[in-house]
Write a structure and sequence with these properties.
single chain, alpha/beta, binds ligand BES, binds manganese (II) ion, binds zinc ion
Length: about 500
């Protein structure tokens, strides 16, 4: 998709469609007024008749208004003018973009008013226009046979009204890059577990690295993983016929000497639970258990595509968790790469096991910060639902930074209290500690486990179990938390 900015002359603009906002009071917003005047009051008449009432989420497509270069006008509801906020604008544009994606309309100009929305400056406008447009035309890479749904026709979107065209243009560029990275995550995560295996994930990382300058990749196979003594990762992998892979991505957009930010992703390509087998309902959704790994791969492509001045390392521990004859059993003890021993009381708590070895691996880079991303616990979904990812760690400034990035990116996370007491729940009589405790505070005890491997490093953990994908009729990857990570990286790069 191609993006740009429009500034003046909406009525003479050579696009297929003008997207205009209507408040619930059936009031035309500023931009719509000029269009209405040019068309001889047709829009006003339409509102007076009650054909469109401006409810948030509603849209109405009108064709062939006189006095306009554009053949179509798409009205979209901004909700009540008094309650207008950034969210109302987003919802209005998202509804409009979704409606446009179902038509043959190829180009449009976004001309929604945004009164006193200070978090909706020209830069943010550009970013949201691009991100939302790209999200609306995204199609799941499904394996349906028969007639394919044609791709959306929308290929050119102009953002406005803006005062600072340069800021908006910068926002559009960043937004398009965020959207492209988000699609990388979604495409990988939506694939079934029989296609997206650890080896496949590694190949995809290789292919993406080949397409992005400055991005390099190294893949550790089972032998190399063994030489790294990643006993916890191998314990998870041993029940599967699919061999594990450990993917190391590096993006050197800054002096190599600069301490890197290390992103660590959980790449469980299918989580059956292992011997601690999961219940059948919804087990198919455990193909999304590599979403964190996909987000890490996506984040590195994002940095490379914008040539951010950053030194980044991405680590993805890719395994399948299966109950084979050689599978790890409850009570088995594994030795992690850090040398610490772990009693595996529940083989379904596999994410923390593979992450522990990946987090330990990150030490060799002497990182400025380590952030792991994982669909780690059902308990996090219980605690926060599907709106916020959980965030925990050992550095308050880093946690704040991630929270702020989430707000700006509309991909929020919320802190859970990782205080010392939680680690006590992991006591074991047989090893240094166990991989699970009871149900209570499960999202936090999982983080407390990870904390045993990150001492001395600035570390944060994002639990995306409730946010990375949707269930039900809209089942599919959301692409979260790629927008959050992208925003974090933009800020770190000073962009
Ligand atoms: N991948 C799951 C976590 C998960 C659950 C993600 C639901 C998305 C939705 C993870 O490996 C897991 O199984 N965690 C267990 C931990 C428990 C055994 C301590 C869980 O949350 O039940
Ligand atoms: Mn599990
Ligand atoms: Zn899992």
């Amino acid at each position: 998709m191609e993006f740009g900015v429009w500034s003046k002359g909406l009525t003479a603009l050579a696009v297929d469609c003008l997207v205009l906002g209507v408040f619930e009071e059936a009031e035309l917003s500023g931009e719509a007024r000029s269009v209405d005047a040019a068309s001889g009051g047709r829009l006003k008449k339409l509102l007076e008749r009650g054909d469109f009432v401006g409810r948030s989420g509603d849209t109405l497509l009108v064709a062939d208004l006189p006095g306009l270069a554009a053949a179509h006008v798409l009205l979209t509801g901004l909700g009540a003018a008094k309650q207008f906020q950034r969210k109302s604008w987003r919802k209005a544009w998202a509804a409009a973009a979704a409606a446009l994606a179902r038509t043959r309309i190829k180009s449009c100009a976004v001309a929604l008013d945004r009164p006193q929305a200070k978090e909706l400056d020209d830069y943010y406008l550009g970013r949201a226009v691009a991100e939302i447009a790209s999200g609306a035309v995204y199609r799941i890479n499904d394996l349906k046979t028969g007639k394919k749904q044609p791709p959306a026709a929308l290929e050119r979107v102009l953002a406005g009204p803006v005062r600072k065209a340069a800021a908006a243009a910068r926002g559009l560029t960043h937004g398009a890059a965020v959207a492209a990275a988000t699609s990388v995550q979604r495409d990988l995560a939506n694939l079934p577990g029989n296609i997206c295996t650890p080896r496949f994930l590694a190949e995809q990382a290789r292919a993406l690295a080949a397409r992005h300058t400055g991005l390099r990749v190294r893949v550790l196979d089972e032998g190399a993983i063994r030489r790294e003594k990643m006993g916890c990762l191998l314990a998870v992998a041993q029940g599967s016929a699919e061999p594990p892979r450990f993917i190391v991505l590096e993006y050197a957009g800054a002096r190599q000497a600069q301490a890197p930010i290390v992103l660590v992703g959980k790449g469980v390509t299918f989580d059956s639970g292992g011997i601690s087998l999961k219940d059948p309902p919804g087990m198919d959704e455990m193909k999304f258990d590599m979403s964190g790994g996909a987000a890490v791969i996506a984040a590195l492509t994002f940095a490379a595509s914008l040539r951010l001045r950053l030194h980044l390392v991405g680590l993805v521990a890719a395994v399948e968790n299966m109950p084979g004859g050689k599978a790890v059993k409850p009570g088995d003890i594994a030795t992690s790469a850090s040398g610490q021993t772990v009693e595996i009381l529940n083989t379904d708590a596999e994410g923390r096991l593979i992450l522990s070895d990946a987090l330990h691996y990150s030490r060799r880079f002497h990182p400025a910060a380590v952030i792991d991303v994982a669909t780690l616990t059902g308990a996090c979904v219980v605690a926060l639902g599907h709106h916020h990812s959980g965030v925990m760690g050992n550095d308050q400034a880093l946690l704040r930074e991630l929270q702020d990035a989430g707000v700006r990116a509309d991909d929020r996370c919320w802190p859970l209290p990782l205080s010392e007491e939680y680690a006590e729940q992991l006591k074991s009589n047989f090893a240094d500690f166990a991989n699970v405790s009871g149900r209570d505070g499960g999202a936090i005890t999982a983080a407390a486990f990870l904390a045993k491997f990150t001492q001395g490093m600035k570390w944060a953990h994002l639990d995306i179990a409730g946010t990375a994908y949707q269930s039900g009729t809209n089942k599919g990857s959301t692409g979260r938390p790629t927008p959050l990570l992208a925003d974090f990286l933009l800020k770190r790069a000073g962009r």
